[in-house]
Amino acid sequence: MTRIYLDHAATTPMAEEVIKTFTVEMNKEFGNASSIHQTGRSARKKLDDSRNTLATSIGAHETEIIITSGGTEADNYAIFGTAYARRIEGKHIITTQIEHHAVLHACEQLEREGFEVTYLPVNKEGIIDVCELKNALREDTILVSVMYGNNEVGSIQPIHEIGELLNDHPAYFHTDAVQAYGGIALDVNDLQVDLLSVSSHKINGPKGIGFLYQRKAIHLKPLLYGGKQERQKRAGTENVPAVIGFAKAVELKQQNLESTINSYKELKNAFLHQLESKGVEFTINGSLKNVLPHVINISIPKTDVETFLIQLDLAGIDASSGSACSAGSIDPSHVLVAMFGENTPELRNSVRFSFGINNTVEQVREAANKISKIILGS
Hints:
- Residues 4-365 form the Aminotransferase class V domain.
- InterPro entries: Aminotrans_V_dom, Aminotrans_V_PyrdxlP_BS, Cysteine_dSase, PyrdxlP-dep_Trfase, PyrdxlP-dep_Trfase_major, PyrdxlP-dep_Trfase_small.
- Belongs to the class-V pyridoxal-phosphate-dependent aminotransferase family. NifS/IscS subfamily.
- The chain is an alpha/beta fold.
- It is 41% helix and 13% strand.
- A seven-stranded mixed beta sheet has the order 2-8-7-6-5-3-4, sandwiched between helices. Strands 9-10-12 form a three-stranded antiparallel beta sheet.
- Strand 5 (141-145), helix 6 (159-165) and strand 6 (172-176) form a beta-alpha-beta unit.
- Helix 2 packs parallel to helix 9 (240-255).
- The longest helix is centred in the C-terminal third of the chain and has 21 residues, at 257-277.
- The radius of gyration is 21 Å and the shape is globular.
């Protein structure tokens, strides 16, 4: 049985060109980029070229890119780095109830350290009200962290409007763009964000590598101490082959971004239309308009998500009930709780399907057919 992978929001397979580039560079560029000899200088050149590729993809300057171990570290650096650097100015932070746990758990830790955090609610589409954010702003607010696109339901937040709002406020503006990057065009200057987090494994690149965009003049307190790597912002010998592989994945995404977006939309529509044609009853969780092109979260009445996911697995379909970081947890999705409230049916009958570069229309239709048989028993 050939499996159908529809969980790209959790992680993506490495693209063939990325695998080739990554493996070649593992043999070729083994040098320490901080070394002054030729082998080290060669690694440094490749690192700098890759950093420039990453920066260009979001309209940034290469000096504004900090290489990290992934999205979690990038989020943590933005939040803790801001809090510790600006605690004299204030201890108030604003975020949302539906952030990734890399943000939420970081904020919860800061609360234990004496910071105050406002968690903005969302509507039933999973989107915040900018007016509520405006009302939550205070003189001592030092950071606003709002994710670009949600990893569970795909809802896109009004980041540009928030950027405009914060023009006249000293708070730093951070967005977790891990799920959005590579599936939608991003420009940090247009969005007016100060900090932006990205992870390679969400865009068919290597795992364990990512970056934090830090706008010039924004000061963060480093979380790691050691050498002077990353312009003294993030100590540790750089994983040069992984950065090169990451840059290759970015190149591929940038070259084909429009066609990739259209492909994801086609896959999503084909999947939903096939379910409808088979008579499957479902509702879409999240926004129909302001949504990432590759993510769809649906609620199927009279189903239990844990049993349903096992049935999908047995049928050769990989899907998810939400964040992969909560796999194995019996707790309901905090995103769906924020959207619908506690003890609502959506908490027990919702499944996320997410599409990627290796999916075909035939695959998603086949998956929809298998799903209909599971649900309808025919």
